[in-house]
Amino acid sequence: MFQEIEPIFNRALKFSFSKKKLLFVFPLLVLCGVLIVLCHTLAVGTNHWMCVSLAFLPSFICVGILMGAGVPLIRIYHNELKKKTFSYRKTVSQCLDLILGISSFAIPLILAYLVLWMILGIFYLFKEIPIIGHTLGVVLSFGPFLLILGSLVLSAVGLFLLFFVTPQVSLKSTMGWSLAEDFFVRFKMEVFTHLIFLTFGIIPLLIVVGFLILAATLTGLTYLTSERTWAIALQWFFIMIPFAAGLSPAVIFFFNFSAESFACMQKRQK
Predict the structure, then answer these.
(1) How many domains does one find in the chain?
(2) Which residues contact 151 (CB under 8 A, 6 or more apart)?
(3) What is the pTM of this model?
(4) Which residues touch 167 (CB under 8 Å, ≥6 apart)?
């Protein structure tokens, strides 16, 4: 298997630095960044229950945005490999319906998370009951743990949908909720193969994100000194712009490799 992965990994990486694709992905990552910075700013000074919501909710919205971006990116990558002549604008316009359709896959994740978040709010209310609230909070601490664990599982589901369902929609030009069900059926049959492909697909992303977060954290500790909320928000907004630029090639690679993985698994099934 690893002999199969090496050439497709190198090929996906080779086509990750196209100027036009970078210009396409960068504004979308800036949009995701603005959403995250906004939620981060709103979370300043709020209670823990709201902080949890503002931490998870933007990630699910970003899943929908990135799934929509992945459709034209994978089609462009497919045309590049086939050495076909194509227009970026025409490619995007031809798959607008698919972009809107696949973005809707994030809606069930958002709704499921909102249900978990509202149930979590009940546990916070129990903690505020006079006299017995603290004791109840201790006894029922397993509840928030399970609910936050469920939110993390939903985040993992979003990642799987990004990597495995996006190329299926892009390359087969089909759209339907049954695609997600088909993926989970295939995943149960070949768990190891899917996890290996996903691991190699996110390694560059994790490395880049790790360096960018480290740089942003050190900048925050050593340079950002303002205590005003609006100033902090503006500082993180301007940091987010080069952050999105540095992340763009890794995101392009992620979708390139997802297309390669989908094609490889299709060949294995035949």
Answers:
(1) 1
(2) 52, 56, 113, 116, 117
(3) 0.89
(4) 70, 74, 255, 258, 259, 261, 262, 263
Range 43-51, long-range pairs (CB < 8 A, 24+ positions): 44/229, 44/232, 45/229, 47/124, 48/124, 49/117, 49/120, 49/121, 49/124
For residues 58 and 173, give the distance between their C-alpha atoms in angstroms, rounded to a whole number. 28
CA distance 73 to 70: 5
Residue 154 and residue 112 in contact, taking contact as beta carbons nearer than 8 Å: yes
Task: For residues 154 and 162, give the distance between their C-alpha atoms in angstroms, rounded to a whole number.
Answer: 12
Residue numbers of the domain that contains 214: 2-269
Separation of alpha carbons 189 and 166, rounded Å: 19
Token pair in block for residue 227: 């205590």
Alpha-carbon distance values, 205 to 74, 96, 151 (Å): 17, 26, 21
pLDDT digit string, tens, across residues 171-224: 766 666 667 677 777 777 788 888 899 999 999 999 999 999 999 888 888 877
